[in-house]
Amino acid sequence: MDDAITEQGPLPSDGMGHPTAKPPVGEADVAAGLAEVRAAIVRAAEDSDRDPAEIHLVAVSKTVPAEGILPALEAGQRVFGENYVQESAAKWPALRARYPDVELHLVGPLQSNKAREAVSLFDVIHSLDRLSLAAALAKEIARSGRAPKLLIQVNTGAEPQKGGVLPDQLATLLAECRDTHGLAIHGLMCIPPAEDPPSAHFALLARLARQHNLPILSMGMSADFPAAIQLGATHVRVGTAIFGARTRKA
Description:
Layout: E1 5-6, E2 9-10, H1 27-47, E3 56-60, H2 66-74, E4 79-82, H3 85-98, E5 103-106, H4 115-121, E6 124-128, H5 131-144, E7 149-153, H6 170-179, E8 185-189, H7 199-211, E9 216-218, H8 225-230, E10 235-238, H9 240-243
Parallel strand pairs: 3-4, 3-10, 4-5, 5-6, 6-7, 7-8, 8-9
Antiparallel strand pairs: 1-2
């Protein structure tokens, strides 16, 4: 598809219609990056005859310190994604005290022994991918009475180093989550292989969601979210295009 266009001009592109990220360095840059991503979402939705209101921007703030997140909060962004439970526990309670309407998503892998903290911290968990984690989450949901929305991560590229259930095992995991553990599953998430064109993976995830009547499709990141929107994404997870190139976690 065409390069995403914003009111400020085109998003930087890799020449294949995939926006690339400028590296924001300050408050104005974060606000500008957020505005550009929002505008690109609107353009991609309209190009696909979709209502932009159906698409939720999850601003991925992993490794971004609390003060770096404030410009996005002050610009009205309220949905954020994090990869690490401990990092989130350290920075988000104080931010949520100031901005109580924040919706916090866990978009990274979750260890079963972190289920208690995850259920208490997050409103949506994108990375349910195995029975042991389903059991741990069900136990904490029953204990706490707090029930974050749960998405199953699908390993669409069958990558051994990556989390997610294989596509042909999704139906079994879904049934066991629901029937054995009483969990409500709201949608699916995927992270396509870095070396593959992402659209085939997005199309596969969308097809699986339709087959299982799951309304939430979490797919698309900074480099490929317009393609994900074209193929039905309801939630796009965008970090670098808003917050800039991030420091690697030690």
